[in-house]
Structures are given as structure tokens and as C-alpha cells.
Amino acid sequence: MERKNTGKKYNKDFKKTVVDLYHSGTSVKELSNEYAVSEVTIYKWIKKFTPIGTGEEFLTPKELAAIQKENLRLKQEIEILKKAMAIFAKK
């Protein structure tokens, strides 16, 4: 089965508008039919542009992944520094 690449590019505002319509109660199937975008693509947009959080703090999944990546890097740096301190403490 060969995949069709329609080559359509959608701008960020259009994607956010479709996601907002989904959150306001329009089904993915209806949005897909109305805007000629596949349901899979719409689900990807929903995942990408739906904020995560509670209260006043909201993050997109992309921002959350970046924070987790930075957190891992910092933990690794701390471990390296602890090992270096142990080496220098012995001298």
C-alpha cells in the first residue's frame, strides 16, 4: 500500500483554529470532512497544541518534553560533579 503525499502545508493559525473547534465540541470526523484534512493529522494537531496543566500554568507537550530533556541533562551534570568532588576530596 503506497502512501499518498498531498504536499499540503497548513499554517500554525489554521491548525490552532481546528484544535479550538475540536475543543468547542466539533468532532474530528466533522472537522476532517469540512477542512479536507485527515483525521490522523487532526489528532496529531490536537496532541501538539492542547495545553497540559492546571490552574494558571499551562505547557504544550513540546514544552514539557524540552523541560524533561533539560532536567535529565542537569541530573547527569550533578552526578558528574559529585564524582569529581569525591575524587578531589581523596587527594
From TrEMBL:
GO molecular function, one term: transposase activity
UniProt-listed InterPro entries: Homeodomain-like_sf, Transposase_8
Pfam families hit by this protein: HTH_Tnp_1
GO biological process, one term: DNA transposition
The protein, known as: Transposase
Classification lineage: Bacteria, Bacillati, Bacillota, Bacilli, Bacillales
